Amino acid sequence: MRISLLLALTASSVAQAAQLAFPGAEGFGRYAVGGRQGEVYKVTNLNDSGTGSLRDAVSKPNRIVVFDVGGVIKISERIVVSKNIYIAGQTAPGGGIVVYGNGWSLSNANDSIVRYITIRMGKGGTSGKDAIGIADGKNIIFDHVSVSWGRDETFSINGDVTNVTIQNTIIAQGLVSHSCGGLMQTDGGVSLFRNLYIDNKTRNPKVKGVNDFQNNVVYNWGGGGGYIAGDSEADSYVNIINNYFISGPDTTVTAFTRGNSYFHAYVKDNFYDSNRNGKLDGAALCEKTTCYSGIDFVKTPYNYPAPIALTAQAAVELVLKSVGNSLHRDTVDTSLIDQVKSYGTKGGQISDEKEFGGVGEIANGAALKDSDGDGIPDEWETKNGLNPNDASDEVLFSSAETMQFKNLIVALYCVGASCSTLRPPIERRATTKIPSDSFNSLETYWNYLYPWGATHNGGARMDKEHVSVTDGVLTLTAEPRDDQEDPIHYLSGAIHAKSTFTVSAGGGYDISAEFIAPVARGTWPAFWLNAASGWPPEIDIAEWKGSGKISFNTFNTSDEVTALDRDYPNPQEWHSVRAELRDENGHDVRVKFFLDGVEQTTQYGRDYIGAGLRLIVNYQTEGSSGSPGPTTRKFLSVTLTCLASTDSCVIATTFQVRNVEVISLN
Question: Known Gene3D superfamilies for this protein (predicted)?
């Protein structure tokens, strides 16, 4: 039913335009507003229409739609979604919400968000219509949606459409004889990230215009083609990166068909498994027309808002784990995922949903208690210092971390099957693990050497005597020595934190420090996080490798490294570095790197959630920074202490650190 509650904005309209639709929103549609200016509407029944129905909920603009019921909503006519709607399917109890019997139109549904809902059109739906269709509109995002059984296309975007994202979504089983995944044909920008196209004869998808296609899995397409590259004289500008195409029982043609010279594409690291042998053992597609049809290859990717970087193999793993309405996977989605896991031996196109067992039964469940009807469960309100009997407090929370999301938006991000794991908003969880004055009581917070011993990858052996603290400044001194066995040419200093740091689901860390760092050849100081057990993870918060630059690096494997080098001006002066580690999607960690308060880059650590990290400060030499290291007075660009009086004297260089601080947001 309708709840008369105005959700006042906590930010100006200018600031609002830059707010993510929800944490984890990516791509062209990531800034969809989704009802933040409107009212909460609770769906209280499974009726096709009338008060408390889903159809009524989306019939007027500016609403956040939450669910007190789970089950199948059988519809006779298409559902038409208004502007500024947030459909929060994650709030549905029991087996979630399945909408069955006809399709949806989101034409002109500007600034709408659709999450965690299942839409199954079926043979009884309107002939010649799509299960989901958009003919015009802007700023729309779909996340964790399962859509299937379209009569025309299953999910199509055409016409004057701008800034749309489809992420983590299943697009399945367009009904024969048409059996199409869908058209993605607009110049306004469509992002397709981590989706599963499965059991569609053709158009998986058919792309024209501006499109970013990354980390998707396409399975068991038919003779009409897998990915169709334009097939027209209109120009297209497309990224196709890190996707996996897997043949199934119905596959009779290659992954890419019908491309031409008007289709300008950057292609990279896409894989094709045509073996149908029950194993994922495909090969990388050649970057030639023999693999991609007659498209025009461009040398650099288009600068579109990119997703978290995953390999094609990692994309398959993540899709199997969490694609579609994964909070409420029904028997249909479970069977589709099992097909993919068969790697070519199972699958089939259908002309009637009954061939696949139909929509099945969906449990209703019990709604989470919400005494004041503001859409926020009582348990979350109580945990976070709100009043479960005061509906007005859903607008109060605002922070930089959540881009000024209101309490309700933060709660919706967290709500799943229960509230048992919900925690306070992230900024209310800040706990200092290492204070900025920790060097004044060094051995309280820090151990000497590396966690594993005295040596690592370079020309210096770590030694406690080369570590000193004066007035809160840590100094690590690299002293050239000729009394060590190769490859050791120096004694130097290292410390590591006694604590282990683990980013938990929904949490994070802020880690910062200030440095005077040498940058001459052969000097290799670093401030970094390394795996407490095994390897990776590794995050180099700041590393200087003898090139005059500072490096920011994140390792997923030894061959999969995201790295950025920046100029490092005035190395003899103090500079600040900060890394912000945040849960990206329950599995991966997003890392933002800052130099002197200015953001430099964002990188991602795959499956870093739950992995222990050790913080290390060390001054290594040679190795990756070149050799020989500094041994004479000519290295005047580094801080030095001369140990002799001649012009060619051996010198000791230093790496100075202060104000190291570690804040937990778990």
Answer: 2.60.120.200, Single-stranded right-handed beta-helix, Pectin lyase-like
